[in-house]
Write the structure tokens for this entry.
Amino acid sequence: MRRHHLPLTGSTQDDARQAIATLKPGDWQVFTADEQNAARGTHHRKWLAPANLNIYVTFLFTFLKDQHSSLMNLPQVSAFSVIELLEGLGFYPQLKWVNDLLLNHKKFGGVLCESEACPQFKDYLAVRVGIGLNVNMPAQLLADINQPVTSLLIEGGRELDREKVLNLLAVKFKAHIELLSEQGFKPYYEKISSRMAFVGEQVQIHDYLTGTVHRGIVLGLNSEGKLLLDDGSQVMELINGSIIPSMRSLK
């Protein structure tokens, strides 16, 4: 896995996009930075990315177009690679479907997946998976963010070696994406289901593709990784959206 590192960049996601023309099938590249000044999450939300505190990484790789059904599961499996890694370090994160990472119902990380045609290889897509994790971020830097947020430092009471965590993440991430490519979502269904936040709770889900807001109780996932939501009249299967929990769920 070839690594490209910058002390300061706009976004590792944009850095990876500029390297798509250099990709070959089976190639893996990783882009990291100590600081980002134009970091973003899903739906172009801003992400606070100060220097020398957190992990800012984008993985760039190829994915066969005929495995398009597994592309939907990339955010979940990517998030699971973080969850599994941190469980080994004594943390117990949950997945806020579809791509947010929580500790004690507070966000500490997220995943951004983007794909596009790989012009030099018609059978492949170029996939960029960006992962941002609040590692050693102190409480005072998070105080002004308008949602419940935290860091591994706050939750664990100790600083972590960012480079060590990043290296462990790279190994786990590559192994899980390769397994997803080979076997689909089946190996992950139970593992991810058991680590889902807000199961059994009343939520709203904002579908950004249609602008629709769905309300209901989260039942979990189906075998394809779609979210099951009971709206009182039917069980809906959703493929994207942002969960907005009730205030009671955050207490």
Observations:
- The helical segments are 12-17, 68-71, 74-87, 139-142, 152-156, 162-183, 189-193.
